[in-house]
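Appendix B. Extra example for self-study. Work through it before the problem class; the solution is given directly after the inputs so you can check yourself.
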Amino acid sequence: MANVDSALEVIDLAKDYPGTGHGTGRGIRPISFSLKTGTFFTLLGPSGCGKTTTLRCVAGLEQPDEGMVRLGRDVLFDARHGTNVALNRRNIGMVFQSYAIWPHMTVFENVAFPLRVSRDRTYGAAEVERLVGGALETVNLAGFQGRSPTQLSGGQQQRVALARAIVRSPRLLLLDEPLSNLDAKLRDEMRNELKRLQQQIGVTTIYVTHDQSEALEMSDMIAVINQGQLMQIGSPREIYFRPRDAFVAGFMGSTNLLTGTIAGSVPENGVATVKLTGGQVVKCQFPNPTSSVKPIAISVRPEAIDLRQTNAPPRDGWNRLIGTVVSAGFLGQTNRYNVRVGDLHLQSRTGPETNFTSGESVAVEFSVMNAIGLATADGKVGTDGPAQRIEPGNNSK
Amino acid sequence: MKQVAVVGAAGMRPRRRAQSSWRGSGLTIWLPAGIMTMVLAILVLPPIGVLLQTSLTEVNETGGAGSFTLAHYAALLADPKLYSSAWNSVIFAAMATGVSLFFGGALAWIVERTNAPLRPLAYVTAFVSLGTPYVIYVSAWLFLLGRAGPINDLYRQFSGSSGIIFNVYSMAGMVLVEGFLWSPLVFLLLSAAFRRANADMEEAARMCGASVFRTFWHISLRLAQPAIIGIGLFVFIRNLESFDVPVLIGTPGRVNLLTTDIYLSITQIPPLLGHASAFSVVLIAVVAVLLYFYGRISRNADRYASITGKGYRPRPFDLGRARWLGGAVILLNFVVILALPLLAVLWNSFMPFVRPMNLAGLRLLTMENYLAVLYETSYVQLAVNTIFVSALAATLAIFLTVIAGWLAVRRWPGGATLDQITSIPLVFPGIVLGVAMMEIALWSPLPLYGTLWLISIAFVIRYMPYGMRYAYSGVLQIHRELEEAAGVAGASQLAILRRIVAPLLSPAIIAGWLFIFLLGARELSIAVLLAGPESQTMAVAMFDQWSNGQGAEASALGAAWTVLMTICACSLYFVVRRQSDMVAGS
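Solution. Structure tokens for the complete assembly:
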């Protein structure tokens, strides 16, 4: 459907809400990204970080203070030239968090609304019928035309909202936490559905969520935002495996953060030796350029930490620390361990075959490739804490 | 702290706030509120202006306007009658407020928070009484408590004397009748407050071992206190402005109040326009001060109530055997507020003249009054007039306030001003607005005086604040994203208002329309000054009949009219019910 040029370019978009204090509001700092036609792009971050504001700025529901938004060849907004295309002339499809299905209209009338109020052209009755039918079919709601939206389940309302957003073949699809009001099972189902649908119609899509697993599974590209600032932008793998800082590492999934200082300078290949706060020495890699003077943190995912018998032979390219099991939990397909190494408390998630008990002495091993050195410039990791684990769920509410 | 410092350090360049939103920019976003402000200002401001001007202008020999003077104010303030009337007004308003708060409050708590039987009866009582013209009520009470009424009649039979035990034409009579008149509304307002209250708090007190009474006294009442004070002040202001009871009871009983003084000074010949205007300005000032405090209190009360809100399931107290006592209170309320007055009206309407209620009277039963009412074309004309005036006023007021409320809630530039302008008419007591509109009609080059149009405009001004409350809270209930979705879908602002907001608002629109229609249909104080021979309304006609001693015919007219208005009031009740159901269900 959407084979027109719908590359989106956002340059230095910024919005400030006066009177909301520093960084606490929903404002955004200058943010830039450009998306190729058909990209599924996710704005990810904790609530209040400005991701929805960014989305609303693109939609035209908020007016940015600065920057430029360009869709294909059309400039939608440009602060410098005072350009601001009214939102009802942007031809953008949007699904709202509350779905915003109009309760006084039938499903058909809801979906047909964008066609009825279109200013580009008028649609004949037969054409409206055909387009609405097509959109409903795309979202698997064929035959629901005459229903009242109040009789629909949450998932069905969601689909109506989606059908309404795509009925006019928009050049851009905006999704504002569309799954947050669904129950867990339905959410999983709709994830796949949304992704399939987006690929089917090939529309450039911006998706807003605070759920990192949603973002990882669905996106071609993710932007992590915190306190109005773009922290990192990249593919899901990049974001997950090569986080730029402690915030991104923590937000993308639970992780162990080990603080320390770099011994010497970072060599060309990015692998450096780090002296941890507790005195242990480990090797890790630095995917991003780092000055060697500052305190740094090493992020190691729980699933990257292997527990072995203390007498097991050491492996090449692996770090080894000796610790004591504090607690052990059996979760079926995995075991969860809390291990104390000096002052450090590390979380490890291992396969079901390991079997250690509390108090047991173990070798804590992780590969150099899985130990990511991070700058701590954002102040998220202090020099005082031995290790910090950020559960993603805690940030979401 | 460190985080804040880091974020702050990056610093954003100061920017000029753009005066636009997704709804539009530049002129288009200022225009709607600008136009509405002008329209509403043209309606609301002239009454105050004309009162001020008249009160500060001399009347010369020819009756025309003379030079600037403070004489009206000086004369007013030098007159000792002002102070006795003011004192009477305050006493009357305070005591009547006490009566209605006690009566309506107790009833509201029993109905909302206990398992007493007959609870729906309280609502029926309240809604039917909303549809009954005050004149009818007052005259029914005058009959019941009066010389020929059953109370004094019984007294005479048992004591053998020919005197009376209770003189209704007194301050006590006025307080009692006014208190009864307002208790249904107090009941409705307070029951909403009690309904919102969190049952957990009362249950916690019960779990601590408190009795039902102690829980009521220390918890329920304290929680509802801000609401009670707010409603009390509101009723006090309304009582201060009230006209029906003072003119029907106070004037014959020689108890003068501020409102009746204004009425007398404007209806005597020649009318003392300057004096009445100065009087009105003073009354407006007093009401404005009271309203200011009311606004502050009610804002707090709302905040208090919104803490609770969602997830609430009504868990009424189990009164045990005392529930029948609660039922008795509800029944008593029904009898006193509704059954007795209506019975009195019916009795009078079937009697050839006003006479005591007893078996002997049954021989005199006659349909003559009804036949007179139904066959006299002038009465039909009255009904048509009243319905026309009220319907026109309700339509205009709702039309204006829906747009104003939408602009205000959605924070269009200038929308906040609209909210303030629409609340200005609250400072006009009905009689004062009547005086002001009369003066405007006298100044105006258009032949407005004595027309239904003038009354309609006065009603629009008077009831604008009520329409605004319905529209404002109605728009608040519409999720912002419903409008944003329409905007994204390509709809213009006008299309959003017409195709999304108005249909979703329709329950509030209907409820608000009916409410204003009912208020207009029974309004006396404005209409009594503005009605000409060709533009009489029902309330005015009944007032005249009652004043002229045609009590029986007035009663028949009142009974027929009450039936009609009760139907309207009941539909109001169902609309309101459905509206709250819809909101709860969404």
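Self-check: The longest strand of chain A covers residues 318-330. If your reasoning did not lead you there, revisit section 3.
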